[in-house]
Design a protein that fits this description.
Creatine Amidinohydrolase, Chain A, domain 1; single chain; 19 helices; 6-stranded mixed beta sheet; about 20% strand; 3 domains; alpha+beta; Creatine Amidinohydrolase
Length: about 600
């Protein structure tokens, strides 16, 4: 099927005189997880991961993705004729280098400018033209061959009430306009849907696991325009819009409206798509979208709510652990049925909206694929042996959660126990971090990787990511990794109020995968002549599986941290459990 689609695409390329065609994962809004309508790269390659760029030439094709998906991509691309390009590996060529090597001078490469951001578009054009390769950004070829392409989503919206959001739409608009005024800008274009959702306290269900509405917005000093299907607006949001001078226009109308903007227009060239940016005729001021920083620093209401959301989520996950441990020996449980049970436990919690991403329910060697997703053809029975990894989360009206636990289902090898403990040791060291204000995640990453690096081991992904508030479970600008990856924009200064994940792991292809993840809140500590010291406050309260721990590998301080953590788990979670569950929790939370 993939071969046939590639051949059909090449026929369309011939009609446009294109010798190479670029298909990214993204949509018109630079969204991490795209709706079915925009899943062009998945349709053309068969690769289902959330990150990747496909390049199709007349004779060959290749797909670039990162270390989270190397194993998965290799499996899904098998037999497709598409070569896997492992991003970050020194031998992997860049996309422009691959294209210029494949094409001859005078030939043309193309892409759909609506799904590639302005900066990346200009980069491709600059590098290709330097080799006398022409570049076009006005061709959506996949639309021509995708005959049963899904429609754009248009789900009903709902307002995130002030008791959950903490700040009103009016306050947020004022904050944005202060930045616009300071930079001499008359208007500001935002195309990222999570930023629009934050700005207007507006939510919907257009994308699975991402409670937002597809929309664009232009904010002026005296009014704002949101581009979306107005018929799906809830009454509360409609009233908020009327009170704040927000006009609703059709989704596609922005492409014409930007041509009539005057004065200076503020845009983020890493977000706005190439077609939209090239349609602006007014003066342009480029900068990182200030909304990124605004929404990453949670206000007091969001923080208090998120803490309660984690208690509810901790109850669901702890009940799941109890059920799993009690039933794995004599009940038929599979990766998918276990995931379904966890989802049901979350649904029973107050204020649950939906899961915050597709649950990774991965047994034994499946867990070596960091973003494995069990399907009927891969669904595996859980047996009373080995390691089982579950990475899951939920959106609640109170906040968003993301947690990973690795469970011991029965006998494990000494090697598995060693790596289980060392990954946990890295997790603890990062969670105990104490630093001066101004540090970024890149300064702290060694704490998590140190126990693994000391043994010549690593994991091919970041250690932590920012977490949105009833938005994307992954958000900029905070993150934790050992090197800067510019396109991820996750190397910002760690500010008080930012929520970040702490999730080191060990992945042995064909054997097992281990990950331990909590969410942590950056908070201010003591301030003195050296500056403002900071530390993390833990938000996640779910037991770590003590059966996987080799206490001899932990220091006294690390053991004390773990014992204190488990005591907090028991105190916070046990009031929500049955008497039997509470007795079990007390036993597994006993001091090492």
């Amino acid at each position: 099927m993939i071969k046939e689609r590639l051949e059909a695409l090449r026929q369309e390329m011939k009609k446009e005189n294109l010798s190479a065609y670029i298909i990214p994962t993204s949509d018109a809004h630079e969204t991490e997880y795209v709706c079915d309508y925009y899943a062009c790269r998945q349709y053309m390659s068969g690769f289902t991961g959330s990150a990747g760029i496909l390049v199709v030439g007349m004779e060959k094709a290749a797909l670039w993705t990162d270390g989270r998906y190397f194993i998965q991509a290799a499996n899904q691309l098998a037999g497709s004729t598409i070569e896997l390009m492992k991003m970050g590996n020194p031998e992997t060529p860049s996309i422009p280098a691959y294209i210029t090597d494949m094409l001859k001078a005078g030939q043309t490469a193309g892409f759909d400018g609506k799904v590639i951001n302005w900066n990346l578009s200009k980069k491709y054009e600059r590098l290709l033209r330097a080799k006398n390769i022409k570049c076009r950004d006005d061709v959506d070829l996949v639309a021509r061959i995708w005959k049963d392409r899904p429609a754009l989503p248009s789900t009903p919206t709902f307002a995130l009430e002030l008791k959950y959001a903490g700040r009103s739409c009016a306050e947020k608009l004022q904050q944005l306009r202060h930045v616009m005024e300071a930079n001499g800008c008359n208007s500001h274009i935002t195309t990222k849907i999570d930023e629009i959702a934050w700005l207007y306290n507006l939510r919907a269900h257009d994308i699975l696991y991402f409670p937002v509405a597809l929309a664009y917005t232009i904010v002026m000093m005296d009014k704002a325009i949101i581009y979306m299907d107005g018929s799906r607006l809830d009454q509360t949001s409609r009233q908020i819009f009327e009170q704040n001078g927000i006009i609703v226009k059709g989704y596609h109308e922005i492409y014409e409206d930007v041509r009539s903007l005057s004065g200076c227009v503020m845009i983020d060239p890493e977000q706005i798509n190439s077609t939209l940016a090239n349609s602006i005729t007014a003066d342009i001021y480029t900068c990182t979208n200030p909304i990124i920083g605004f929404k990453s620093i949670k206000n007091d209401v969001e923080i208090a709510n998120t803490k309660q959301a984690h208690i509810y989520d901790g109850v669901a996950c702890t009940k799941f652990m109890y059920w799993l441990k009690k039933n794995v020996k004599d009940t038929y449980i599979t990766e998918m049925s276990a995931s379904d049970h966890l989802n049901q436990l979350r649904r029973e919690q107050p204020g649950y909206i939906e899961d915050s991403f597709a649950t990774i329910s991965a047994y034994k060697e499946h867990a070596a694929m960091m973003h494995y997703h069990s399907e009927p053809e891969t669904d595996t029975q859980l047996l009373p042996e080995g390691l089982y990894l579950v990475d899951s989360g939920g959106h609640y009206f109170l906040g968003t959660t993301d947690i990973t636990r690795t469970y011991v289902l029965g006998p494990v090898t000494d090697q598995e126990k060693k790596w289980f403990t060392l990954a946990l040791q890295g997790h603890i060291r990062l969670e105990k971090a104490h630093w001066l204000y101004g540090c970024r995640g890149i300064n702290l990453d060694i704490l998590a990787r140190g126990p693994l690096w000391d043994r010549n081991m690593d994991y091919q992904c970041g250690t932590g990511h920012g977490v949105g508030h009833v938005l994307s479970v992954h958000e900029a600008p905070n993150g934790i990794r050992w090197r800067i990856v510019p396109e991820r924009n996750d190397s910002g200064i760690l500010e008080a109020g930012m929520i970040t994940s702490d999730e080191p792991g060990v992945y042995m292809e064909g054997q097992f995968g281990i990950r331990h993840e909590n969410e942590v809140l950056a908070v201010n500590g003591q301030q003195n002549e050296y500056g403002q010291f900071m530390h993390f406050e833990c938000l996640t309260f779910v037991p770590f599986d003590r059966e996987g721990i080799d206490p001899s590998l932990l220091t006294k301080e690390e053991t004390a941290w773990l014992n204190d953590y488990h005591q907090q788990v028991f105190e916070k979670i046990s009031p929500y459990l049955t008497e039997e569950e509470s007795a079990w929790l007390k036993e597994i939370c006993r001091p090492l």
